[in-house]
Amino acid sequence: MILSRFVRQSLLMLCLAMVVAVAFTQVAVSAEYQPMVGQAGKDVVWVPTCQQLVDTMLDLAKVTPEDYVIDLGSGDGRTVITAAKRGARALGIEYNPDMVALSKSNVAKEGIGGKAQFVHGDIFESDFTQASVITMFLLPELNMKLRPQILSLKPGTRIVSNTFTMEDWEPEQTVIVKDRTDCGDYYTALFWIVPAKVEGAWKLPQGDLTLKQSFQTFSGTLKSGAKTFPVTNGKLTGDAISFSVGNGRYTGRVSGNTMQGTLESGGSSTKWSAARAGKTL
Ligand SMILES: C[S@@+](CC[C@H](N)C(=O)[O-])C[C@H]1O[C@@H](n2cnc3c(N)ncnc32)[C@H](O)[C@@H]1O
């Protein structure tokens, strides 16, 4: 008798505990922060990049597990999470603390562990110099405000922007997503590579090289004795350099105040190197 009463009471307690637990879970789920597309942000509202474009942006930047991807203004964390799923280390910098919390909870659901991190911060006061890939969906004027900092990143750092340009810094590639069903007006990925800095005077064994750089392109002159030859087709892809002088084609790598490579001319190939003349970086 006592035992059956005890069992009945225990069962009742168990049922009550289960009801409370279910109710608690429902409150927790419904209490999860629900962002609204277009909600205010510090410098730009939140509109998510559609998943097709997130994938296209990371494809364009050729993200691999070797990369460290930083999303500037990371919203609900989708770009960071997608990069982490590709094996990259990824960080989102986001000003809205609720969005940071939501991103962290989205990471927990994905089970991708420590690869995806989020910090609450202002992109204009954050250090993103360690990134090998920067992703952003901001505004043209914000891209322009960040441009000097972006151009001073390590040569070869890849930058991808959803839709918005960096004015006269032409992208290397512009790609429109194949299926833009979920993308609204934002379906274009723009891709840049931070170029090495070569503007100025250089000493080549063949003479004095003077270069005028405009982002990833440059022109100039090679002064050899009394003769001056134009430098044409100057191109920088990160630290990879190429240019022509007459019918000679120079290719190589820039490393700070030196550069070196191969000169192809008249069917023969020789090594070349140059060092900065005068004021060094
Ligand atoms: C257009 S949404 C893009 C979100 C995400 N990158 C994506 O592509 O889905 C821009 C995000 O930047 C955030 N944001 C605005 N100003 C910011 C600032 N100064 N620092 C950090 N985040 C900012 C907004 O809260 C918003 O989540």
Describe this protein with a few key phrases.
elongated, 281 residues, seven-stranded mixed β-sheet, 35% strand, binds S-adenosylmethionine, eight-stranded antiparallel β-barrel, 26% helix, single chain, alpha+beta
Offer a concise description of the structure.
By secondary structure, the protein is an alpha+beta fold.
Order of helices and strands: HHEHEHEEHEEEEEEEEEEE
Physical arrangement of strands within the biggest beta sheet = 8-9-10-11-12-13-14-15
Structural class by sheet pairing and helices: alpha+beta
- Rg, Å, rounded: 27 Å
Low-confidence stretches: 18-30
Query: What is the percentage of strand-forming residues?
Result: 25-35%
**Number of helix segments?**
5
Query: How many beta-strand segments?
Result: 15
Q: Write down the overall mean pLDDT.
A: 91
> Span between N and C termini?
92 Å
The general outline is: elongated
Q: List the ions, cofactors and other small molecules found in this model.
A: S-adenosylmethionine
Report the biggest beta sheet as strand number plus sense, adding barrel if it closes: 8 strands, antiparallel, barrel
Helix content: 25-40%
